[in-house]
Every structure is written in C-alpha cells, then in structure tokens.
Amino acid sequence: MSTNITARIQSSLSSAGKDKPGTGGSGRRKLSYPMVLLIIAGGLVFLSALRAITDVNDLTSFGQYSAALGWAVPIGLAGLGGLWSERAGIINIGLEGMMMLGTFAAGWIGWQYGPWAAVGAGILGGALGGLVHAIATVTFGVDHIVSGVAVNILALGMVQFLAKLWFGAPGSEAASQGGNDKQSPPIDDLPTFTVPGLADWLASIEKHEWFLISDTAGILRAGCDNVSWVTLLAVLLFVGTFFVLWRSPFGLRLRSCGESPVAAESLGVNVYKYKYAAVITSGALAGLGGAFLAVYVHHYQENQTGGRGYVGLATMIFGNWRPGGVAMGAGLFGFMDGSQLRGGGPTIHALLLVAALLLAGYAVWKYRRGARTAAAVAMVVAVLTAAWYALTDTVPLELVEASPYITTLLVLSLAAQRLRVPKTIGKPYRRGQGA
Prior knowledge:
This protein is mostly helical and 435 residues long. The chain has helices at 2-15, 33-54, 62-87, 95-113, 115-139, 144-167, 173-176, 198-207, 213-221, 229-246, 249-259, 261-266, 271-297, 308-318, 323-341, 345-368, 372-391, 397-415, and strands at 192-193, 227-228. The chain folds into 2 domains: 55-191 and 227-340, ABC transporter involved in vitamin B12 uptake, BtuC; 343-418. This is ABC transporter permease.
C-alpha cells in the first residue's frame, strides 16, 4: 500500500511542469558529469588568468577561500533550512530570527559546557523558532509572511532581553567572565581537522605561484587545512538533504505537500505532519548556522547574524530550491562576505572585470532572445563597469562593506529569469478542503 501511494505521488510530481520551458521539469536538459568537470576546469582557468592579469593573489589564495568557506556555512545552512520549509509549501522569512535564537542559545550554553554543547543548543534554539512558525502557519493558518516577520521581531526582542538578564547582570558569573548585555562570555575553540601531509604539500605548491597549478592548490587547501568539523557536518547535511528529499518516499511526500497538498491528502499523506517536520527542520538548520557563527568568533554578540538569514533566503531562491544550487550560492556569498571582512578592496576591484564580462555575456544572450532593450542596457552597464575597472586601482571602503548585499540583489535579479517555485507555496491549507 505504501509503495503504491509513493508511486502515484511520483507520477503526479513527474508530470508537473513536464516539457515546459523554465519549469525545471523533465524537458530541461541535465548536465552530464563530464560537462560539470569541464565547467569546473574552465572556472579554474578563468580565475588563474584573472589573478595573473590583475595581480591580486587573494583571488585564488588559501586565506581567501578558507574565510569564504567559513562564512559560507551559516549562509548555506540558512538557505538549506529555507529549502526544507518551502519545498513543503511554507514560506520562511523567519530564518533570520531562527538564526538569532541559535546564536544566543549557543552563546548561553557554550561558555558553560563547551563548543559541541553550543552547537546542539543552537540547533534546539532554531528548532524552537521553527516550531512557533509551524504552529502559526500550519495549525492556525496565519499568513506566512506575517508569521515570519513576527518570528524575526520576537527573536530579536527575546535575545536582547535575555542577554541583559543572563550575561549583563551585575555580579553574575557570566559578567565576571567577560559577559555583558551585548555578548556572552567566551566559548572555547571548536575542533578542526587537517589532512596530514596533503595540506603541507598543497601549501608548498601554492608558494611557487605557478599558473593554474598553484591557484588550484590554494583553493583545494581550504578544504583540507584547519577546517571546522561543523563545516564537514554542513556538507553532509547538503548531501543528506538531496537523498532524503529526492531519493526517499519521505522526501517525495514532503515535496508533494508543496506541490499539491490536496492530492497528497487524497493519497493518504498526513500533510500537517509533513509540514510541521519540514518547518521544524528548517529552523534547526538555521539555528545550526547561527550556532556556527557564535562558536566561529567565540562569542554570542548582539546583531551577530547581520542579515545572513535573509541572504540565506536569497541563496535558496538563487539555487532554485535545489541543494546543489543553494551550495553554489552560499559559496558565492561566502566569498563576498570573506572578502569584505578581510578588507578585500583589491579583490572586489578585480571582480569588477568579472562583472563586466558577465554583463556582456548576458547582453548577448538577451539580444539573441530578441530582448534588444534589455540587451542594450546590460551592454551599457558592462562598458561602464569595465571603464570603472580600467580607470581606478581600488574601490571605496563603503562599497567593499556593501558588496555582499549588492551581490545578493544582482544575483536575485538574474536568477528570477529561471525560477520554478513549488506550486502551492504560501497558500493556506486546511485538511479536507479538497472534498
């Protein structure tokens, strides 16, 4: 009986959007593994050439990519959390608030019991925020946007109040160990791992500054030298999400709740249960991202998330509600975040040349599709960006600081051309409404 239900749901989802342009159905061409490897190789050659042309070594340095990997983790986990929720039909703009709860819970528990306890507390804190959002949207049918905003406001007020009460109270143990009303006492270092031999070998190759070879070594070294175990956990969560949501009966039923909950209900799926599971998991993943922020900088700090929950939401949209796309988006935003925090004026300046080339390519693509006005605008902006790069040596500090958010806006504006949103996302559902 269970297998029969799964087969019928699979048939329904497979036919949805089939052969429709831009829907992501079976009519869309899939990249083969050789093509993916070719794209990666082309990207490495491009980065190496850009580094050689601009003489900005940070474009392929270990330090840059190590920082990018670290800052990509919380953004990626927030985006992955949004994917779980929205695949079940629940819009979750409360990711920022759930990350706040995760950072605070990690700071509260972490200084007392260590970094791994902080990670667990962050997951529970985020899951609590997800539970609140699920009760409001699934049980009481509150508008998803309103509920998400309420979660963000509630979380902000709660963590500020509790920080003053628990960390900043005069004479308290937390205050005596360095806590105050805006931050927790310090948290011990989170364990990291290094692949013996390989990291040193890659470091020695990177020092030679050989074209492509040293650049590749610098990038690869970021994945095997002084890497947090939570980063490895995040990678496993991305892989696990793909297999759970796209290769298991549970995931098929959860996704059916976001595509056609009435049809899923008619086939015996408990839609409420799956929506609750998705939203709570969403909160737990966002909370883990918040906990990583706290242990990464060894403190809970007020406004520590810095809008990364919203950037995670943008990452999910950029990734078209797929784990691989979310991972790529997180890498991009993590790179920009890392550049900004490392004071990467030269790096951002070099990326102006990349932006000019991408805009020129976009203009050509639009022209071939007949959108001549959009093509002309894109080409003009490409020329102006190239001129900006040619006539300057760096970019203003204010632009460097705003670069992650500017990148978010640009990426979303381009990603909007190819989105395939879950069909019933944001729509209220009541049991038995299809009867």
